[in-house]
Amino acid sequence: MIRRSILIFVTLIVFLAGCSKEAEKNAPEIQNSSESDQSKATPDIQPPSDSTQSEPSSEVQSPTDSNQTEPQTSSTDEQILMKTPGRFAGSNYNEQKVQAALDQLPSKLTADQYKEELLLLLAEDYRPYVTIFNNFETEVKVNNERPDDKITLPTSKKLHISILLDASGSMKAQIHGKSKMDSAKEAIQSFADKLPQNAEVSLRVYGHKGTGSQKDKQISCNSTEEIFHGQGDQTNQMKTALQGVQPTGWTPIANALKSVKQDINPETTDSVVYVVSDGIETCGGNPVQIAKELNQSKVKTVVNIIGFNVDNEGQKLLRQVATSGGGEFTSVDNDESLKNYLNKAYAKLQGEWTMWKEKGEGQANTQKEKKQGTINNTETDMQILANKEYDHLLVALRYLETKRGKAIPHGELWMQITERKGFAWTYARDTKRRLYDEVTKSGNQVYDDIKDEGDKNIDDLKNKKNN
């Protein structure tokens, strides 16, 4: 019994020893099998997806390199589309060369890796279109110079208007129950109230001292006085200054014109003189020469003569003064015709404002439509390019399938290629819509502003002319 137990014990020891050796023998095979299974379960590591490379990648990253790569932030739409195009983009496309490059690609790539390799070869150049969109100026700008005699002059214009009023004794004479002086005062005040607000205005009277007698001639002929000097928006003060003017003496037109020089600011760019007189020079001066000197001076001054109920001989002489001063002579024979003369400039100005408005409206529309056209063309060109890229990528995909068969992840890769096309299309469409809307809004606003300003000034001039 004891011997049998010992035999069984020895047999068990031998058996266990054999199992131990068999386990040691099989251990490497089990380990190798485990490593092989683990290798099959581990997906291929993607190559760098930097499409700015000019050469396609020929190696796959090792797991160690991949683990050391820092996480990258997602790119914006513009950054994606601004990447360098592929080697065979645009006019460089050559199907045979593309196929030769595809043959060099490593095997067992993922869909993402295939996509990046294909883009390194075939991505089209979207940079010009993205740059146009990014730098596009959507603001419509129209900056036409407004008519010179508008309510407010352009800042580049410094206009000086001199009004010279004859206060000689003959201005006491009445026409239709009203003295020439009263008619002249009313017309001048009405005229002044319509002048540009930032124009410089001076009112000077002459012959307002002494009497018409010979003994007071020298006093009267030396009498010329600026009774108002200010801006166009201050001419309401002129009425008070005019109230004290009474017709008394002689007619020193030359002396009054000579004094205009001291009234003009040296910074003046445009100067106009309006002389209201009912007669010729009676103080021995030479108004023709003085008017010529004013017209040829550093600040060129235009001299206009308004002959108020002047006889034929007087009109002839006053016309010479106006001609030498680069202006015009106008004869008026009553207070209404005097007002009409001073108002006729505003009828002309209405036409200028109408032209300004129509020109500005046309430019606003033209600019808007031109910008809209550029935006539309950029969208269309970019989408055509996306179609071209898509076609080339599909040709490459079909070639890879022919060469590598089911090893190509067809469905996933086709989906990524299609998404790439949709991405470019959507970017072009959405950016176009945004910029188009901004241009339309700006163009319409500028058009409306010009129309409103033009209509307002035209209406203001109509009202002033009729008052």
UniProtKB/TrEMBL annotation:
Region of interest: Disordered: 26-81, 448-467
Signal peptide start-end: 1-22
PROSITE patterns: PROKAR_LIPOPROTEIN (PS51257), VWFA (PS50234)
Biased composition range(s): Polar residues: 29-41, 48-78
Signal found in the keyword field: yes
Entries under InterPro entries matching the protein: VWF_A, vWFA_dom_sf
Protein name: VWA domain-containing protein
Organism phylogeny: Bacteria, Bacillati, Bacillota, Bacilli, Bacillales
